[in-house]
Amino acid sequence: MTQKRYFDTPQIAAGFEAVRQSLPGVESDGFDGLRGDAMSKYLDSGLPGPKVEEWKYTNLNFLANENFDIATVSPQETEIKELFEKARVKGLSGPLLVFVNGHYYKPLSTSVDQKGIKLSLLSDNIQSFRDGMAVSDGDSSLNNLNRALVTDGYHLEIAPNVEMKQPMQVIHMATSGTDMTAMRHRVQIMAGTGAKAEIIESYIGADQERYWTHGVTDVMLEQGADVTIYQFQTQGRQAIHMTELHSHVADKARFSHISLQLGAEINRTELINSFTGENADIELRGAYLGRNKQSQDIFTRINHDQPNCQSNQLYRGVLDAGGKSAFQGKVIVARDAQKTNADQSNKNLLLSRKAEANAKPELLIYADDVKCSHGTTVGELDPDQLFYLRSRGMDEVTAKGLLVEAFVAEVFDGIADENLRTAFKEKTARWLAHEVTP
Amino acid sequence: MLEIKNLHVTVGGKEILKGLNLTINDGEVHAIMGPNGAGKSTLSYALCGKDGYEVTQGSITYNGKNLMDMDPNERAGEGLFLGFQYPVEIPGVSNMNFLRSALNSQRRYRGEDEIAAVDFLKLIRAKAAELDMDPEMLKRPVNVGFSGGEKKRNEMVQMAVLDPSLAVLDETDSGLDIDALKIVATGINRLRSPDKSILMITHYQRLLDYVVPDYVHILAAGQIVKTGGKELALELEEKGYMGLGITESAA
Ligand SMILES: Nc1ncnc2c1ncn2[C@@H]1O[C@H](COP(=O)(O)OP(=O)(O)O)[C@@H](O)[C@H]1O
Ligand SMILES: [Mg+2]
Fold it and tell me: Is A247 found in the same domain as A98?
């Protein structure tokens, strides 16, 4: 019997019709129509099953039966504060943008007071979103599902040659009472010629709830723009976390994405990047950590369609008992993309025999004058190193912790801001110490 | 006081130590010499509790405590230090961070407070200076890219900072030029005191010119076959193992 590659989810269609009238933008025809079209597309294609190569390591079959409603709980202020304090990177003074259960949360958010920087919310500026969505090229079924059911998000525009003074922190949280609900947001970041911005994105949520966070981000970089996204994925351990990012990087522009993924039960992170100009740079770095049924699936793609561009990927995975990961990194160098420089390094550390790390680098090179490299390893802690540390007095947990921290440090060592670098390292250390929502 | 009685150690299914006896009192410096493969490193690893070094018979006690029941870090907490024949490289962990973590772990084990950051910095800088180590090396990852001599010097800096009461030094002098050898000797002599014990494992008499031992033992085929004063090392140098009637191969 052959299995269907894509499968249907009729309950999601029914759920959409039930909430459609209450979604933002219903009074604006264009937007409701866009939602309807997206839902049709979603229903036409269905969800990818495990036979679809790209989805080999994350099985979505559970979505065939489970129904995730739109979150409607009224969250407790104390819990919001608590999650906020845990997620917030300390020592930074930039703007804050907080989303609670899929909706903008004003009390903890601050405005952006800098000339040349425009921030608007989906929930109160449908127009800018509709325009933004038109440039979004993601057409996967999940992307369409997100378009249909998105409840909030933000649209950020940085005018040419404006440099954002301080990184903007965006926190997406899911509180208690979000069990079996979905939160879908969309983000658009438009960096004008020579503009510069840093965004810190944190995901956090109640540890006992099985909620579904689903985000789509589009980043457009004009000539010479420089955008870095730092991401902390510290979701509750029952959560389903799916994000899809598309970047378009023009002449001499630079896009960087640096992430730490240590939460959620099911994490699917997609980073789809394209060069639209020459002499541009894309840098993707990340550490993913998993144990106890956690699955961290990182899927990256870099389309080298232009000559003289550079991409650099560095991913480190740490898997403990019951943890599973996949790193799928695809680099496609088009025939005209001469002088491409593409490096990819993925190393995984297994702390237990009951852990699993999958690595699938894929290089498709159609140009002849290129420098491309990739390296993949899966290994264990070196017993001689462990003994050396222990002979100096460190107990097993301390010694292992030091070695694992050193293993992932490479991902974060280059971060210039000390508060940020420390936050990445501390959260890693807290995960190693088995803390809840590190 | 360290007491090793009738020690039998098996490695990879093969018996390497075959009834070794050795007592080291406080304040004493002992040297163990012996041909390659005699079991010298095996003795040092068994003392420190390395995995795979199985004690099948005999006992090891230190200050009346049974070391064999303890994990390697607990033995370190009791005051034991092993200077490695081949110090291990630890990429990504700075010397500084490594030593602070080690020292604080030992202090916690002994129920003492952790050392304050400034005090630690002073301590480590002072010890590095005493042993002629460039302070920049403290920031570098442990032993990574260090020359053979630098690695051994680093062992001495670690020993000076951790201040053990029993140091077991496995061929700390091997592969060193005369300047590096003098530094290693300085490190050992600084540790030497009436309440500390030192066990030097060495191939060559030359270290013993700088650190004069109270006793010299010859280990061959898994046992101590001869014990004497410092003159035994000179005799060995002159006559060789064969000349002393010692066969190199394990019986
Ligand atoms: N892991 C091991 N498995 C099997 N045999 C080993 C192992 N390690 C050491 N040996 C053997 O044990 C003997 C003693 O080794 P070692 O203690 O290193 O000697 P020494 O330090 O005196 O030169 C040698 O014959 C060596 O081959
Ligand atoms: Mg040896």
Answer: yes
Residue A297 domain flag: no
**Beta-bridge partners for A232:** A202, A260
Residue A3: predicted pLDDT:
47
Domain end point (choices A277, A305, A339): A277
**Model-level pTM?**
0.89
User: Which among B48, B88, B99 is the nearest to A385, CB-wise?
Assistant: B88
The answer to the question of residue A335 being in a domain is no
Interatomic CA distance for residues B14 and A157, integer angstroms: 71
Q: Are residues A268 and A391 in the same domain?
A: no
* Interface probe with A: pick from B81, B93, B112, most Cβ of A within 10 Å: B93
What range defines the domain where residue A207 resides? 6-277
| Chain B: residue whose CA lies nearest to A381 | B90
- Mean pLDDT, residues A65-73: 85
Asked if A273 and A392 sit in the same domain, the reply is no
DSSP symbols for B147-209:
-HHHHHHHHHHHHHHH--SEEEEESTTTT--HHHHHHHHHHHHHH--TT-EEEEE-S-THHHH
Residue of B225, B234, B168, B239 whose CA lies nearest to B204: B234
- How confident is residue A4, by pLDDT bands cut at 50, 70 and 90? low
pLDDT value of residue A437: 83
Mean pLDDT for chain A? 94
Q: Which of A394, A403, A410 sits opposite B102 (nearest CB)?
A: A394
CB-based contact A389 B90, cutoff 8 Å: yes
Is A285 a domain residue? no
Q: Domains in chain A: how many in total?
A: 2
Whether A232 is in a domain gets the answer yes
Final residue of a domain: which of A277, A307, A335? A277
Contacts of A345 (CB under 8 A, 6+ apart): A313, A314, A315, A374, A375, A376
How many pairs of residues across A and B have Cβ atoms under 8 Å apart? 76
pLDDT digits (tens, 9 = 90+) for B33-92: 999 899 999 999 999 999 999 999 999 999 999 999 999 999 999 999 999 999 999 999
Note the pLDDT of residue B248.
Answer: 60
